[in-house]
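Quick look at the format.
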Amino acid sequence: MAALRGKFALLCFVLLFFSFLWANVQGNPNYRDALAKSIVFFQGQRSGRLPRDQQITWRSNSGLNDGFTAHVDLVGGYYDAGDNVKFNFPMAYTTTLLAWSVLDYAKKMGPQLDGARAAIRWSTDYLLKCARTTPGKLYVGVGDPNADHKCWQRPEDMANNRAVFSVSASNPGSDVAGETAAALAAASLVFRRVDSAYSRLLLATAEKVFQFAIQYRGSYSDSLGSAVCPFYCSYSGYKDELLWGAAWLHRATSDPYYYNFISSLGANDSPDIFSWDNKYAGAYVLLSRRSVVGSDKNFEKFQQDAENFMCRILPNSPYSSTQYTKGGLMYKLGQSNLQYVTSITFLVTTYAKYMAAKKHTFNCGNLLVTENTLRMLAKRQVDYILGENPLKMSYMVGFGTNYPRRVHHRGSSLPSVTVHPQSFGCEGGFQPYFYTANPNPNILVGAIVGGPNQNDFYPDDRTDYSHSEPATYINAAIVGPLAYFATSKLN
């Protein structure tokens, strides 16, 4: 009798386990709707003079005098997150990932393709100004972050005379220059067939900026100090950006110079993360395409590097160094964890796509990894973000019915100019808007917040920026995976 009870208990456990697994892989959020919203979000982050087709209508013109203090035109670009500063380092990374999404997923984007291109161009128009305005100088940011973070006001209310920051031969910034070159090179491929003149301008500028990056080597964190740290310090150094920039220029030009540069660089880190700061894994996956899809043996090293990275991410791999919450979410760091989830998920879906082209497989020890192995991991992360999680909460604002209402975002949390024409002073928005428990008056459609903690809990607290703040680089990384699953056979 005891044996029968034991077998019955085992059977119940097996059924429960497979029911849980089935629920994890069968969730089917509306990926097309999420894709559309993820791209619309960038309109909420725009700086400059807004176009007539602006969909997020509670935003208005802002930063129209950016560059004035340096006697240059630096109007445009994006605010990086919930603040009103333009940090070019994460902005360029955002642009690179958006461009990569269009390059590898354009056929799956459908009617959202034009919106994605527009989001890229809003940034590249600004980055071109930063790179071409003053010879020998690359502008890398507008707005004093230390002053800005003491304020809670709409972008539309900012003071006109904003600080301008740049790097040069005497104050180098190989990291921000390398990322800017990557963004411009990747974008040149996006526009190659739709605007050839613009594409050529982007590529020519990318090559000049990259030469600047390698000729005058040094970290922009050292050159600019508190203007970028601790906000967007280049913690991983600048070698990863040189690798990343060269990889994108090689894809854009096929010039052997860039392959030779990559080979001589000695960039051999073995990361288990991918982010606006650390680009090694992204460069490995990008370069691996030539080996996996193109069977080019010169790039086999990068294929191995990319697969080693996947082995550090996969939960069942004997080499995994990645934690997962009980609800199944990849968990890397406590502050804005979803930025790592979306960026790594982008690499996972992209490598799965490369594997599918040649029915390629690889091993993590005794674990056989197929394209489907990677697909299911990526789908679990995307579905979690869209509401398949213990709280049944979508971490994309405006998607579904249960989503964050108290987002750490100045423009979203304050009444719009049309509702409240009077300007908010620097500290004018703290009371009652920042500290109130009321929902934000404006919905920042498509924004993905920093996300839940390691216990799958999300407080929905505006003052808790590490969990409630959205960012352009979180969203940029999920565009490709959303497009992928919008037409995936897994649905």
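Next, a different chain entirely:
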Amino acid sequence: MRALDGVTLAIGRGEFFTLLGPSGCGKTTLLRCIAGFETPDSGRILLDGRDITQDPPHRRRVNTVFQSYALFPPSDRRPDIAFGLEMLGRPRAEVQERVARMLALVQLEALADRRPEALSGGQQQRVALARALAPQPAVLLLDEPLSALDRKLRREMQSELKRLQTETGITFVFVTHDQEEALAMSDRVGVMAEGRLLQVGTPRDIYDRPATRFVADFIGETNFLPAMAGDGLVRLRSGEVVAASPLAGPVTVAIRPEQIRLVPAEEEGVLAATLEGATYLGTDSLLRLRLRDGSSVIARLPSVPGTDAAPPPGSLVGLRPVPGAVQVLAE
């Protein structure tokens, strides 16, 4: 099995970079190569221009935060944070000063004397972050550190991680399979599948302009419609022109559900569709529609207090994607 296949990637100093992809795509293997826990069969790993490919982990200015926080059992969190500094042989006074600074950075001064089981999952993670940040690494690697937290706490820790990265200026390389985490925190995202890096860009680039069907499908909800491209235009199977494109032959049209608007069916240039059903979700309503060629489409309409976002099932409606919403992907 080839865990990584021709991955070439440059991460900027002080950047929050996320490796995003499904389980088994190679993102953790890439992280382990950067950390020095795995050695690639070919290629090089450069840190600030220096080749570290053969350096053991303790010789690299790289620290890792794992899914398991592995805190020491005593009722004092200071030894956890001091551990890396002591392994580096730093003077005692410097260790104490840095530990105090790290506790303040992660806002845990009042909880430093608690045992691990007396801390919440988010608080334990803050201790693990402080321990990894204390030696001032050039790069901090984070291997799905939020996976064990509940949804509310995950969102809180997303903001906390971004704050810590901004305040310290350290390069963060974050691994996750959660698209929301990647979009919320990252300066740039690299989407991986089957050991390959498919696309690298800002969260907005990845979401609005996916390079492949896999990227479009993995990042958020997407409607995929079969179409044919030719003479500079893209037509659905029913004949409606939906976009301009230099491609020729069979293509796939991708449209995000929230980028579709309902308009009267008689308007010119709209996609005619029949409403099959609607589900009210509070912040929005999810509409299930069927185009004339039989293709199914999902649309999300924002909720407006006191009004119904959707007409009755069976209604004939028009669909109009917002400008720039239609993406044409080669098959």
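The two ends are 26 Å apart (CA to CA).

See the schema section for token definitions.
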